[in-house]
Write a structure and sequence with these properties.
This protein has about 140 residues and is an alpha+beta fold. The chain contains three helices and seven strands; from the N terminus they run αβαββββββα.
Length: about 140
Amino acid sequence: MKKTHIVLLVCIAAVIMVLLSFMGNLSTYETLASARQKPGKTVTVITQLDKSVEHPIEYDPLKNPNLTEFYVKDSLGNTAKVVYHFEKPFDMEKSDRIVLKGKMQGDVFEITRKDGILIKCPSKYKDDPKAAGNNLSQN
């Protein structure tokens, strides 16, 4: 075998190893029901904040500034309690969607990383017919 063939084979093997390492980082979105079937495994779930009176956001910075508890619903209507081990994200109540990355422990979804929660707020550029009508009537 020529030296160029050996170098080419080593380069191809290196490219395959790099591609395989990236494939380990690919994640899919789960539902709360499928996350319950994978206890202890890190999953990503797209949810909405459950804004019902029975499930308020629990955050008391005087007792524990690094603990926020709230309830979420997924697109199928499943609900779960979320324990976020950091301070409450800013404007969480205004969120349109919440992307959670953490582990299901029983019926509780636990997030232990600061970047384990992503708040998706509604677009401020979205057309609101009522607001547009109010602006027209004021002018």
